[in-house]
Amino acid sequence: MTEQLLSASVASPPPVLDSIINTLAEQGWVIDRSLFTPQDIALLRDECVQHWRQGEFHEAAIGQASEQRRLSEIRSDSVLWLDEDNAPPAVAAYFAKLEQIRQAVNQSLFMGLVELESHFAVFPTGAFYKNHLDRFRHDDARTLSAVLYLNQDWPDDAGGEMRLYLDPECQHHLDVAPEAGTLVLFLSDRFWHEVLPARQPRLSITGWFRRHTGNVPW
Fold this sequence. Notes:
- It contains four helices and eleven strands; from the N terminus they run ααβαββαββββββββ.
- Residues 1-11 have low confidence and may be disordered.
- The protein has helices at 2-9, 16-27, 38-53, 89-109, and strands at residues 29-32, 58-59, 78-81, 113-123, 129-132, 142-149, 162-165, 173-176, 183-187, 193-195, 202-211.
- The strands form two sheets. A seven-stranded antiparallel beta sheet has the order 1-9-6-11-4-3-2, with helices on one face.
């Protein structure tokens, strides 16, 4: 029954995609709270917690390839990369909905997105991620970032907001609470952002839509 409900939830593109695409085209970022159902989020949260309890996460690093390193003064979360080809039902439903976004973006905005890479992210109490862009120094394939939050009934005083800077000088920002079902999309090379310290464990899925480039990752 669960698999049937998940299949039904991603069977056809929802009308909300038009609103997402229009807003993304206008301002380069968009927040949606309707694409993922409470059931979708509950199943994803259960999946994330199960893998965390099994010790499958690893401390997140910064950089790429030979430059990759762990710098706890910059980020202190842990991650688990997701395999779309061997995904359990809840994660498969996530990939299916993000695929709808990829196709809609390509059709309307001609971004040339070809794939999605994603991981679960857990921010233990006190964890943070300093201000950064979602682009590697020598690889500009990441084009559109997608962050989906899995935290039910997140208290107002629990911290953990994503601070999205709306200008290159980082003078103006929007704080997004990591409430369950909130999806944030933004152009990876344009918007600096950070995760403020969380006062309780914080769960999410972070993804990046990639395009083909001629650059090499080293």
